[in-house]
Each structure stands twice: as structure tokens, then as C-alpha cells.
């Protein structure tokens, strides 16, 4: 673990040991953290972002150069005002965020959140750098794809992207490779807490030909725009193809819930939908995908070989709903081919 506070290092050590993890080393700055990672090669590094000398972002970039298979859980102080820093960490390869306990906050909640996210990180694939050269596709068992279906109309397709754990880095790789205009527009649901999706949209916008922005009520889907569902709200698409937001209860602890947005888009656009399901834990997107499939839309899933967590795409593939399964590096060309069909 890396944190410049001796108190936090003690607290993190006790919390992780309580969850059954072995703490092999601690570091009080980024340089010590990188050295400890090279020496001990841990499965997971907990990382503070604000440290003297080499900060947390510097550590993430340094780890990428070592190519060590270490998953990173950022444990730091967050607020919407610092959302850009947190999103930068996720885009640079951090797997999860854990907020340090504020004064008066529940320590038990912090310990439970830390344990759950470190456990997930310990079982996740190493996050691939979006700056690295694409790896050659690994040989894998054949996956089941849906039988070929004829195109039902020549209208532009709307592109719906759903992702969760590992999604910010996947989006950082995918979105800049997509052209503008693109079909009937793009909608993105990335599971994130309130206050961070605006920073994610801004980061993607700076790197992309598409205009990427956080969705707001009344937005219309447009060919040059990608709308990102805001954290803390369900993004709904009305029959007239405009966006609205609601604060209905989370579904499966998720708000936004991708299933809701996908189903809305399927009903608004019928066969003119291309659903792309990227890395993520769980099965959000599966029920929405059933609606897309039933109404004649097309579905692409990220291959296990490039997923940080092969959960959401796996659910699509195992249900026989995927019309194509592609490594992340191949998805831009696969999307272009689908939209040209």
C-alpha cells in the first residue's frame, strides 16, 4: 500500500488483514511504492493520489512501464471538485476508487468497501494500457454468437455502449478511435458515483472527434454527439428520442442502470440499434440486450482477452445474444463495419 499518512497506513493494514489479505509492504511516497511493487510483485496495490514527490498518477504511469500484473485500488479523498483527478486515475489504469473516511463517517462502511474492492481487484485481469501496442489476440475457446440476421432498414444506427469496472480505461481507448459523425449518435452508461461522470465526459471529449458530454434532460441524440449517463441518475430515452433523467431507486445497487437505457433505446429505434457491451462486473445490460435482440438490433461484446472483468460481456455471450465478440482493439473497426452494413 502507498500513503504518506502513517495513520492511514496503519488503518489500511488493519482493515486488509481483517479481510484476510497479506500486506507485503507499505510505502509513504510514490518512489517507494514502485520499488516495493518491483520487489514484492503484489496482486493489488492500494494507492493514495496525493503524496509528496511522485504522486499516485505518476505511480500508475510508472507501473505501466514495468508491465507488472498489479491491479490498483485508489484509496484517497474524493469530491466532485476533484472528479477529474479520480477519472484520470481510472483512465491511467486504476481499477476501483475507495473514498477515505471523512470525519464522522462510518469506519465500518469504509472497511467493508475497501475489502470488497480489493477482493475484486485481486481476481481481475491486469488492466492493459491504452497507450501500449495492441497485443496479439490470444487463442481462446470458440464463443457462441447469434445466428446471422438480415438488416431490416437502411436508417442510421444509434450506438449504445454499456460498461462498468475497467470501463473508463476501455472508453479512453475506444472513443478516440470513433469518427464523427457516427450513425444516429452515441449513448454511454458507465457505472460511476455522482460527481465523476462529468469529468469522464470532459476527458473523453478532449480526446475524441465526437462531442462527448454528460447527458441532461431534453438532450436529443445527434450524429456528432456522445451522451454519458450522469452518475446518480437513471438515463431514460423517450419515444421522441430525447433524454430525461430520474432519481428512481437504484436497481441492483446501480444508478444509472444500463438495462433501462438500453431497453428505452431499443423501443425508440427498433432495429436501428448497435449495442456494445464492454468490461464490467455483473449482468447489467443483459435484459436490455434481450430487447435489442428481439427488436432486430445488433449486439457486440468485448472479448474476454481484453476485459478487465469479464462479467457484463460474458452474460451477453452466454445468453447467445452477441452478433460479434471482439478484442477492445478491434472494436472500432467492428463498429464501423456494423454501421456501414
For the CA atoms, what is the radius of gyration? 20 Å
* Elements, N to C (H/E): HHEHEHEHEHEHEEEEHEHEHEH
Strands ordered across the widest β-sheet? 6-7-5-4-10-11-12
Low-confidence stretches at least 5 residues in length (pLDDT < 50)?
A: 127-141
Spatial separation of the terminal alpha carbons: 50 Å
Helix-strand blueprint:
Elements: H1 6-18, H2 30-40, E1 44-47, H3 56-66, E2 71-76, H4 83-91, E3 96-99, H5 107-123, E4 158-163, H6 167-174, E5 186-190, H7 197-207, E6 211-214, E7 225-228, E8 234-237, E9 243-246, H8 258-269, E10 273-277, H9 286-294, E11 298-302, H10 312-318, E12 324-326, H11 331-340
Parallel strand pairs: 1-2, 2-3, 4-5, 4-10, 5-7, 6-7, 10-11, 11-12
Antiparallel strand pairs: 8-9
Helix pairs in contact: 2-3, 4-7, 8-9
